[in-house]
Amino acid sequence: MKGRLSKIREYVPTVPLILYILAFAALIIHIISINSAVFADFFNIHISSFFRALLSYVTGWLPISVAETIILSIPISFAAVIIVVVPKASESTKKMWRCSLSILSVVAYLYASFVFTFATAYWGSSLEEKLGMTDRAVSADELYETANTLIDIVNETVDDIHFTSEGYSIMPYSHGELVSLLNDAYSSIADKYDFIPHLRSNVKQVVLSVPMTYTHIMGVYTFFTGEANLNTNFPDYTQPYTVAHEMSHQRGIAPEDEANFMAFLVCMESNDAYIRYSGAQNLLEYVLSSLRKADSSLYSECWYALDSKVRGEMTAFDDFYEEYSKNVAATVTSTINNTYLTLQGTEGSKSYNLVTDLAVVYFCDGYYDADN
User: Fold this and answer.
1) Per-residue pLDDT at 284 exceeds 80
2) How far apart are CA 50 and CA 4, in angstroms?
3) CB 240 within 8 A of CB 178
4) Distance between CA 278 and CA 150 in Å, rounded?
5) b/e per residue 226-253 (b: at least 16 CB within 10 A)
6) Residues 6+ apart with CB under 8 A from 306
7) How far is 90 from 62, CA to CA, in rounded Å?
8) Interior angle at CA 362, CA 356 and CA 368, nearest 5
9) Across-strand partners of 229?
10) Which residues of 137-164 are buried (b: 16+ CB within 10 A; e: fewer)?
11) How far apart are CA 333 and CA 363, in angstroms?
12) For 180-214, how does the pLDDT look when each residue is reduced to its tens digit (9 = 90+)?
């Protein structure tokens, strides 16, 4: 046995060996999570939350996105491997194996960090179960009722919102102030629901937000750095909701529809009018999209019930989005994202829109308290 271990150590450096062991342990945890929602919930809430918070604290104090920096440095790293590592690896068979296994250990780290921080969150109980809500089919009339409730919320906040001549609303504070306000709202939510951890976290602004817009990505949570990242090129009214969405991933809400709905709940928890406007308006857009497919006449009725300034903002967003709507980057990114989400047991990219079902149950089955 000692001889075998010694032989392995000759070909696998210590750090890569540790990473491979962690990856193997992660594989076992992953398999158990896929087959046991109880285990997945336990691991996500009690263990993964620790690693997510740790990574968030380690990277959070940096003003830049560590994940973006790593991704941008990939070409440099690749060049370094070709220039430095390849010649060294060609010196002997042993060095070739050591170099190759060292490089491949990066994949082992990524997989292990994915499982230990985030993967189990896809396989636990649903957000409906955690909130005590019922998962059921919804009707066009219920979509209409939900849309009208959200329209009332949005219209009530409009008087407190400032709009530009181009139709866009203006966020009345800095990015840092927005993150602080949403951290406060999350603290309040965490007091209500024990599956949401108490965590004050940073959200990084992506430097290359304009190029990122061509991928249609408004924000992203990077599990291997614990960072929530925001594309700042999108209009202001999308940003509080997007930040809340990515922060929900940071707190262990993995499925996209659930992260969307938690973002709404958190925005509604805030005392700030603009954050509440962002939460209600973004959820309303999902509901109206579903209603338009279900019943165009009811959709039209809801559209004209909206305050004209809100309709103007939605039209302005459509004009903004048109520039980025069709391109190769968006197609490739969408395919990759759909594949990833499908592998996690969700309905792929369609899962974003499933927030509509959650919204209908919330508003039509008596879970929404207008006075709260």
Assistant:
1) yes
2) 35
3) yes
4) 11
5) bbbbbbbbbbbbbbbbbbbbbbbbbbbb
6) 151, 154, 155, 314
7) 38
8) 135
9) 204, 220
10) ebeeebbbbbbbbbbebbbebbeebebe
11) 33
12) 999 999 999 999 999 999 999 999 999 999 999 99
